[in-house]
Amino acid sequence: MSTDSPTSSTDEFDAAELQALRERVDELESSVAETDDDGKKMTIIATKGTLDMAYPPLILASTAAAFDWEVVVFHTFWGLDILHEENAKNLKLSAVGNPNMPMPNALAALPGMDAMATKMMEKKIDDNDTATIEELIDLSIDQGVELQACQMTIDLMDYDEDEFYDGVVTGVGAATALQHMAESDVQLLI
């Protein structure tokens, strides 16, 4: 006859179940810790070089970097104007074909409308104390964002690499951008 009471086998079962639960919790905590250590990655492809299209990649990149994301912004074609010191200071807003302009396309096509739209946007930026493109570039680089200039486009458009902002990475091709995109949690084409 067994001297074990019915509660002792239940206690053993509870202890074994409790041990299994502890092991599962440890496994899940380890899994979460590994995920947190990896961090997030973002790749942005910047293809446009107008004033209104220079802001989104730089704002998104600097914000993601502030959250410790690894961020690459690959600038190609007209997007290189954002990284070119002289061109970046003179980016224009295109009124034609811009659905958010408060004027019809026929009016937007008149000579001088792009200049007027640009002046209006620059005044709004200044009045609202919004960061300039140059300030966002400096902020992005300071936070570790890698601003890449497409080498094929540099060659095609005859850019002088010395005229890009300090910290811009040149010599980068589409294959490198694609590799980073494949490894990224977020990929954006702007």
Number of helices: 8
- Our estimate of the beta-strand percent is 5-15%
By CATH reckoning, the class of the largest domain would read Alpha Beta
Count of individual domains: 2
Strand line-up in the sheet with most strands: 4-3-2-1-5
The CATH topology of the largest domain is given as Hypothetical Protein Ychn, Chain: A
Secondary-structure arrangement, i.e. CATH architecture of the largest domain = 3-Layer(aba) Sandwich
Could you say which structural class the secondary elements and strand pairing correspond to? alpha/beta
* Radius of gyration, taken over Cα atoms and rounded to an integer in Å: 27 Å
- Biggest beta-sheet profile: 5 strands, parallel
Query: Which H/E pattern describes the elements?
Result: HEHEHHHHEHEHE
Organism: Salinadaptatus halalkaliphilus
Protein name: Peroxiredoxin family protein
